[in-house]
Amino acid sequence: MTTATKENEPAWPSSAPAAKLLAEAPLANGASDANIGEGIRLLFVDDDDLYREAVTGELTDLGFMVESFGTSAALTEALANGTEANVIVLDWGLPDLDGIELLPRLRRQGIHLPVVFLTGQSSQAHEQLAFDRGALDFVDKSRGVPILAKRIRLLVGPSKRPADGGPVEETLHCGRLMLKPKISRAFWDDSDVNLTLTEFNIVRLLASKIGDHVTYRAVYDCMHHEGFIAGSGEHGYRTNVRSSIKRIRSKFRTVDPEFGEIENYPSFGYRWGKPAAPAA
To answer: What pTM did the predictor assign?
Structure first.
């Protein structure tokens, strides 16, 4: 979406003050602001040429390896040609296909890279729709590049990736449920449930603790990142969790009308399946 700026005014009006504040904030894993994006390959899509150039420059200065595009078609072509990345940053409004419509198309094409929306569409309705479609974060453009950079690092920084040479889980089984983490797909009785990335992460969390209750907060943290705050009021995030669980149940019941593995524990959270029977 084109971002209007006055002559001689930077594309990120809040970046300089934000950077000053963030300079005093500690970063995870001992990273400094100068190398916060080190090792992270980022694909950035925005149709405003000047804005895209400014953001790309700032992210590059922070250590990110950035490839930028002006349209959805340019991004999808690059991905089809084998371009590799750790994360995609999308604008909401694009000239050929809006970012919010591009995201599910990427998933249908088997592209499951984490997606962050960077947009001026900052309403709660836009934010909720982005998460419903599978985005992992939603950043208002006015927050500035330093905030965007830190949130991307939280999602895909070195601590989120397997160590070189370490084992990679290919398939996880939990009764009739089969999870394929590498492609973020869930299968029930060998039928693809067609979960979004966020929904897959919730199911994986619940199934990894079969028979044990998982708190609303823990579910919400896996939807975004630990400590993420959204929603109205101290416990407003619970509404988002309930909505996600409702959609997940509905998708499983499309495959199996008798599906009932996700149980609710009122005012606490959810669990997958029944608790294990005590040993005799």
So the answer is: 0.54
